[in-house]
Amino acid sequence: MQSLDFSCYRNIVILTGAGVSAASGIRPFRGQEGLWNEINPLKSADSSVLQTNPLAIWQLFGTLRTQLETAQPNAAHLTLAKFEAGFSSSQQFTLITQNIDGLHQRAGSRNVIELHGNVNYTRCSNPTCSLTAYLDKSPHKDLLPICQLCNYPLRLDIVLFGEQIPAKKEWLAKRSLRDCDLFIAIGTSGTVWPAANFVRSANYVGAKTIFINLEPMKPKNPYFQEEYLGRAEELLPLLFNIDVTPH
Ligand code: APR
Q1: Domain count of the chain?
Q2: What is the tens place of the pLDDT at every residue in 126-155?
Q3: CATH number at residue 92
Q4: What is the pLDDT of residue 19?
Q5: Catalytic site residue 116?
Q6: CA 48–ligand 1 middle distance (angstroms)
């Protein structure tokens, strides 16, 4: 496969989804191997479950913490990190991810907006509590953790169905899209808002738009001008012409 020439772009925005972490052993939500083929997300990952059965949210996503103890960034993460590292000071690079696994940062990516939060962090479920989110390795699958400041249940610092994206993150993402000249979405089914709509904004400001995924988007999104189908961990090093093999 021939590599793409990105040298003329000054303001690049990349959106990633669960497909980028598949080769690291993290299961995507949709598609053939998707978690939501087995579990109904509206019943198990909805914000209402925080009220009715908060331990169930820990049981569903806490497992990811255990997996992340051993999971490693794969060639897709490493390619994007190396791509960003090669940028000049006159270029802007923003990596917006829907992933909650923190693998982009572990690969070395710097300007990352974690739209849906980070599963490695715990925070209080009481919106008025002063506890700041903190790094926490425990999956808390057996016993609901309680906030020492206010006695409310603690929760994962992630965005559940029915919850808003934190305002600052949404604002930063939208600001990056406002004047981007290249937008690439990788490993996402393109079904969850607001990220699903980002390509439309990028197209509106005249950016080149590219979709890279294992399977075509269903239904097809007309705002993508180019599409490359395959595994992100195989396609990205080729398309970006970046060597990520360990030496
Ligand atoms: N390389 C590229 N794409 C892949 C790979 C791979 N190795 N493996 C799977 N895919 C594709 C799947 O075919 C699917 O189209 O990645 C896509 C992943 O889609 P989703 O699982 O829907 O992930 P995403 O788009 O990130 O989901 C958005 O939905 O449930 C919520 O909060 C969750 O952040 C998530 C959001």
Answers
A1: 2
A2: 999 999 999 999 999 999 999 999 999 999
A3: 3.40.50.1220
A4: 97
A5: yes
A6: 23
